[in-house]
Design brief:
single chain; 222 residues; alpha+beta; Beta-Lactamase; Arc Repressor Mutant, subunit A; five-stranded antiparallel beta sheet; 8 helices
Length: 222
């Protein structure tokens, strides 16, 4: 077993997301980290739908969490079904196929560093009060520091912030991205875009495409 014991990993991750559910009037939560030295990873999700919302944004390459990271400010969507989402129309259409009514994204920031995001959803179209927003920001600030410390620790141990055996791990996707960039002579970003385009065109998830690439049943050609 690795020095970063999986049971401790799991307990830590569960506690991270559980804090938001305990303190705020939301149905579910997911936390993702972004690091220049580590692949994007979903650290935790309180339920299947929370994990799906995170996965959808990763698969499609668009969504409100991109806005939160870019602006470094919360994205508060109290009624997603009666809003206009020109910046991420494909994700919005996918969102309408779920039970989500409200979506709240808070960036995880430490100084000049973007650590990740926390994505909160509700099955009722209700806004967060000013007090709820203050609580969410305070929790996000505290968790951002904790996650940054964890990322630095894992960097030193050459490990992933999500255990490779976890269903939240995207190790296979990153492995497939490396294979596609070699096949096509692209950058990692361009290879990921090609995989996303293939997934969208064939109504597949990125995990499905990655699995085929790694198994060599799908080979990209120019």
């Amino acid at each position: 077993m690795s020095p970063w014991d999986y049971a401790k990993n799991r307990d830590y991750d569960t506690a991270v997301c559980a804090q938001f559910l305990a303190a705020l009037p939301v149905t579910g939560a997911a936390v993702s980290v972004f690091s220049a030295s580590l692949p994007e990873a979903c650290v935790c999700a309180t339920d299947t739908l929370a994990a799906k919302l995170d996965e959808m944004q990763f698969d499609l390459g668009e969504g409100p969490r991109r806005d939160a990271v870019t602006t470094r400010a919360p994205v508060l969507l109290a009624d997603v079904r009666n809003s206009s989402h020109e910046r991420w129309p494909i994700y919005w259409q996918a969102l309408l196929d779920t039970d989500v009514q409200s979506l709240f994204i808070f960036p995880l920031i430490v100084g000049a560093l973007n650590v990740g995001v926390v994505e909160l959803y509700s099955r009722s179209p209700n806004p967060l009060s000013s007090r709820d927003q203050e609580i969410a920001v305070a929790l996000a600030d505290r968790i951002a520091w904790s996650l940054l410390d964890r990322i630095l620790t894992l960097n030193a141990r050459n490990m992933s912030p999500t255990d490779e055996s976890s269903p939240l791990s995207r190790r296979e996707i990153h492995q497939a991205t490396g294979m596609v960039l070699v096949q096509l002579g692209l950058t990692a970003t361009e290879a990921l875009l090609r995989m996303r385009a293939h997934a969208f065109a064939n109504d597949q998830s990125m995990r499905d495409v990655a699995r085929e690439v790694v198994a060599r049943t799908l080979v990209f050609t120019s």
